[in-house]
Design a protein that fits this description.
This protein is α+β, with helices and mostly antiparallel strands. Helices cover 28% and strands 37% of the residues.
Length: 287
């Protein structure tokens, strides 16, 4: 087993609570590391676990979990846990985890899950939609699609995400969140392999030659999976293509590094908007 066998990794630093008196990781924690990596795997597949499996009509239940020990992890080690789906059965999925310290393989974990009815726990065939997503990911193909269009085209899906993120999660009043700009904006929505919306944003005109990106929202279960950046890049390019000289946005302060990595720079002083700290940021298009 090699690092290059895996497309999905979860980085974990060994903590004091996970080691024995010799500062060696207690054997049961390797299963925990693999389970954390499985969570990252669903994020990389753009599948919010709860809503996705509800849509699929079942749950995954662990049938088998085994470990093979090659070498010991110790306190302070930084581990990279690779995870992959290596077999799809009729009602089961087999995953394999490789726990690495640098290039050294420390531990191999095998996990077998059975897809079953959530209430009765009776096995059911793995849905084709899930099979397709797993196959696409392991083959290096995209597991999402991005659509761009009007509020009439995408409003229902964009609103669903924005209600969950801004209204329910952040406490923004609904009457502020849905405004008059939605009907004239260009919207972008990323859909996963089950056709569920997982990320959205919009582009409006602030003034001639100036675009404004806003209402950027990503389903909390799949944050960190690059889906927000996909929406942002799409809206930046749409602004550029229509001839804008620059594009601005009102960034929540905690998200400032995310926008900085996309080439936006702060303008002016921080302020509050809907009770949340913000800062205006700008990206100028070069000729």
């Amino acid at each position: 087993m090699q690092r290059e066998d895996f497309r999905c990794f979860q980085r974990i630093e060994v903590r004091w609570a996970e080691v024995d008196a010799q500062k060696i990781v207690f054997n049961a924690h390797y299963l925990m590391y693999a389970d954390v990596a499985v969570t990252s795997y669903w994020r990389q597949l753009a599948l919010p676990y709860e809503s996705s499996f509800a849509a699929l009509g079942g749950e995954l239940f662990v049938k088998k979990a085994s470990t093979t020990y090659h070498a010991s992890a110790t306190l302070g080690d930084v581990l990279d846990v690779g995870i992959r789906c290596i077999r799809q059965g009729n009602t089961s999925l087999q995953f394999e985890a490789g726990i690495f310290r640098g290039l050294q393989l420390l531990n191999t974990v095998e996990l077998v899950y059975v897809f079953a009815d959530a209430a009765t726990q009776q096995p059911k065939p793995v849905p084709q939609a899930l099979r397709d997503v797993l196959t696409a990911f392991e083959e290096g193909r995209s597991v999402v699609s991005l659509r761009s269009g009007s509020w009439n085209d995408l409003g229902r899906d964009a609103e669903r995400l924005r209600m969950a993120v801004f209204v329910q999660e952040q406490g923004v009043p609904r009457e502020i969140e849905i405004d008059e700009f939605d009907t004239v904006a260009r919207h972008a929505v990323v859909f996963n392999g089950l056709q569920q919306p997982i990320a959205t944003g919009r582009l409006v005109s602030d003034s001639p030659g100036v675009g404004r990106i806003g209402r950027m929202a990503v389903d909390r279960s799949v944050r960190g999976g690059r889906w927000g950046r996909m929406v942002l890049d799409s809206l930046i390019e749409a602004s550029r293509q229509r001839g804008d000289q620059e594009v601005v946005l009102h960034a929540q302060r905690h998200a400032q590094p995310f926008y900085s990595r996309a080439g936006f720079t702060p303008v002016g002083e921080p302020y509050e908007e809907a009770g949340i700290p913000h800062i205006t940021m700008k990206k100028v298009f070069t000729p």
